[in-house]
Write a structure and sequence with these properties.
heterodimer, A: MetI-like fold, B: Rossmann fold, six-stranded mixed beta sheet, four-stranded antiparallel beta sheet, binds adenosine-5'-triphosphate, binds magnesium ion
Amino acid sequence: MAVRGRRRPGAELSLPAPSALELDRRAFRARRSRRSTLVALGSTLVFAVVAYLVITRSPGWPRVQSTFFSLDNARAAFPDILRGLWLNVQVLVIGGLCVVVLGLGLAVLRTLRGPAFAPLRLLATGYVDVFRGMPLIITLYLVGFGLPALRLQGVPTSPFILGTAAIVLTYSAYVAEVFRAGIESVHPSQRAAARSLGLTHRQMMRIVVLPQAVRNVTPALLNDFVALQKDVGLISVLGAIDAVRAAQIEVGQTFNFTPYVVAGLLFVLLAVPSARIADTVSARARRRQQSGSVL
Amino acid sequence: MSPVAGGPVLDVRGVVKTFGENVVLRGVDLSVDEHRVVALIGGSGSGKSTLLRCASLLEQVDDGQVLLDGEDITDPQVDADAVRRRLGVVFQAYNLFPHLTVLDNVTLAPVRVHGRSRSEATDEARELLDRIGLADKAGEYPDRLSGGQQQRVAIVRALAVRPRVLLLDEITSALDPELVGEVLRLVREVATQGMTIVMATHEMGFAKQVADTVCFLDQGVVLESGPPAQVLGDPVEPRTRQFLSRIIDAGRL
Ligand SMILES: Nc1ncnc2c1ncn2[C@@H]1O[C@H](COP(=O)(O)OP(=O)(O)OP(=O)(O)O)[C@@H](O)[C@H]1O
Ligand SMILES: [Mg+2]
């Protein structure tokens, strides 16, 4: 630490250099945090080495290695799987956006008060009950095969669009409940403060309640987002060639399971950045709002 | 941990606290003897709350020491939870737990932290609530009480753990004069029973009546301290005088 007074050229009163006692304390804290980092690192390392040894020394390992971790098979399957993954990403982005909008709308409908809104509330509640309860795979079949079978004018037949629609139906029901929990977690005094400033109900929701609600449920939303990232793979049941389907085709030809591992790893990689982004966002919000540094 | 006979209960020595570039405390010294009431006065933003938060280990000091019964509680090796168990804190914004009833707010720490039996803690809490005239609100939730009632509950919650020192942060800032009177009567009563109290306040009249020592906090240091009659009646420092004359103009002394 430099002398603090020197770092604040603008201040009219500068602080003296930290005392020996304070320097001791800082050194102690640094030592302590170094020690706990080392302990954490060390124990992780030991675990990794033990796991590695146990697995690679197991009697079945050579066999497993050649059927699940074959580099040649991975290389051959990779381009197709990557192309399929692009489809998943498209479903994810488009579907994700629709889910947020629809989920938020449903949540707001469900939190409306007063008898005038009873039908809307009821409708939203029914929607959530149905699509949250229905297994995704069944919704996929109903929407993906049932809807085109009606042969109505203008109903799309692409498995991509139908699959996305089914996923949006299910996930917006989940996400609506998460948002609703968030909205209800905002302390009533906030509503009182907002309304007394003259904000309308709509402004209050948009400017005061929803930002706090979303912050409160960011981890839960992220959880659903990662679940969504994996479930977009289910559109393969409608015949869309996504990463899972591409891997399946490859496996069917070679009887080697490596393509599944490749697809799985790609899905994991897809999930990592969004997790880190959400961590950063919520950490920044916390820093900005908190009043004490210790707790 | 046994009290040092005769030594101060709370001893703040050269405490420095900065928030980024903002130096809020630049070497505060403050010593509080047992059974004494010290009032912190000073302009808004002068660091009264920050000092109380440093003393209750809610903020980490950037330099200096805080001693509680002679033990350096700013030492990173002390168990902060054990220290906080010996302190009672009442916040400027009450900070009652809205999801618990008044009674549960009061008995929470005695039962969960200090391991007292629930029935004993409940009896004691009811007695305290009775003393502040809120016995009939024991089952209510805090949001359904008036501001003054919440404030009194917050004081009782802090008292229920029988702290060594009570740290009060502007506990009357949100109340009407009548409620101010009520809350202040409670504090005075607690003080006469021998509690050691440090309180930040804008109520000069109250500081005058209850405090043994008044400390004027200005530009990050205790600029002037002494008996209320001297500091409030005949201050030495020009800045204290200026601050007080502003308050007299506002009709608050
Ligand atoms: N967590 C924080 N982060 C950054 N700055 C802070 C923080 N807490 C307090 N401050 C700053 O420290 C200064 C002192 O604040 P403090 O709350 O201690 O004042 P105060 O004397 O209690 O004022 P008041 O009489 O209005 O309650 C203010 O300038 C404030 O902006
Ligand atoms: Mg304050």
